[in-house]
Amino acid sequence: MYIENEEDYKFAACTYFARNHPGETCGSNGLPLTPSSVTILSRAQRLLNIEHPNLCTYLDVIRGKHERIIVVAEVIGKSLKEITSKFTYQEITNIGRQLANGLNFLHDQNITHRTLADDNILLDNNGRVKLFNFGMYYMTGSGEEVSFPLGLLLKFSESQQETET
Questions:
Q1: How far is Cα 54 from Cα 113, in angstroms, rounded to an integer?
Q2: Of 100, 127, 139, 162, which is most buried by a Cβ count within 10 Å?
Q3: What domain count does the chain have?
Q4: What span, in angstroms and rounded, lies between the C-alpha atoms of 78 and 56?
Q5: Residue 1 domain-assigned (yes or no)
């Protein structure tokens, strides 16, 4: 039912470009604007320090050249999407409880998951739920620091879809 070997302990990395400030080099106070990649990196430091039994750990966030951001996180287990066996009622209840614990912790930290789906909910070999890919929306200032929508577009309301695209 759950993970059968240690090969399911992996790392994940994603890379993206931070948004450039549109034609402005100085703010209203005359000082240079902070690059979006620096702002993202600053917020990411908080994510690097978050620890919870139902969250995957962010291992590093790197600022590269030309506003490139690289995010590295642990991936422990298999996603619910990958697991083909059926769950018992008790297992479903246990998964739901752990999922709620992880989301409640994020809520207490004022972090919105924004990409909650079966491929971002992982189970380790002990049946522990690990939420994955939960910090991008927070890290990018609610998506303001990138030029692409963050989240699962199919899960957005019509008004969210209009503002995100």
A1: 13
A2: 139
A3: 1
A4: 12
A5: no
The angle at the Cα of 116, spanning 110 to 122, to the nearest 5 degrees, equals 110
- Domain with residue 22: its CATH number is 1.10.510.10
d(CA 102, CA 121) in angstroms, rounded, equals: 10
pLDDT at 3: 42
Q: 130-152 pLDDT, tens per residue?
A: 999 888 888 888 777 777 766 66
User: In whole angstroms, what is the distance from residue 64 CA to residue 140 CA?
Assistant: 16
pLDDT at 2: 43
> Residue 86 sits in which domain range?
6-164
User: What pLDDT digit, counting tens, does each position of 62-109 carry?
Assistant: 888 777 878 888 888 899 998 878 899 999 999 999 999 999 999 999
Distance CA 70, CA 52 (A): 22
CA distance 135 to 17: 16
Determine, yes or no, domain membership for 94: yes
Asked, for residue 62, whether it belongs to a domain, the answer is yes
Q: 47 lies in a domain?
A: yes
For the whole prediction, is pTM greater than 0.70? yes
CB 136 within 8 A of CB 71: yes
Instruction: Name the nearest CA neighbour of 16 among 147, 129, 109.
Output: 147
